[in-house]
Amino acid sequence: MQYKRKESFRYTFTEPCKATFRLIKDAHGLTEKEISNKGICEIIDISPHGLKIFTEFSIAIDKQIHVEINFTLDESPIDLVGEFVWSHRKINGYEYGINLPEDTYTEQFIINELKNVRRKSLDMRK
């Protein structure tokens, strides 16, 4: 795994964030061709450029490298298309690293949602 020195930050959830995913065949074409039904996963950590998920499903990432992830951090639903970069077998499932394409709007949106989540968690402690 390559270390990204320019990565602004990575937020690790105390409780994983629930999400759904589906594998897609062509993320760069005019139409996205679905090749799987939706599956359930948990987001372990996230940054503006990628995320780490956990699921019970084994995915052949060398064959199917694009994935659509749907989740909500604070209030707004987020739909992202990313690319698998690595996988690790765990006792009761698999962890996957997903790289997100560079998109300034999406990066800023993720940062703002994470700030809201953090503020709310700090307010609950008071």
UniProtKB/TrEMBL annotation:
A Pfam family annotated for this UniProt entry: PilZ
SUPFAM superfamilies linked: PilZ domain-like
Top-level taxonomic group: Bacteria
Residue ranges constituting the PilZ domain according to the UniProt record: 39-100
One Gene Ontology molecular-function label: cyclic-di-GMP binding
InterPro entries: PilZ_domain (IPR009875)
Protein's UniProt name: PilZ domain-containing protein
Source organism of the structure: Psychrobacillus lasiicapitis
Source taxonomy: Bacteria, Bacillati, Bacillota, Bacilli, Bacillales
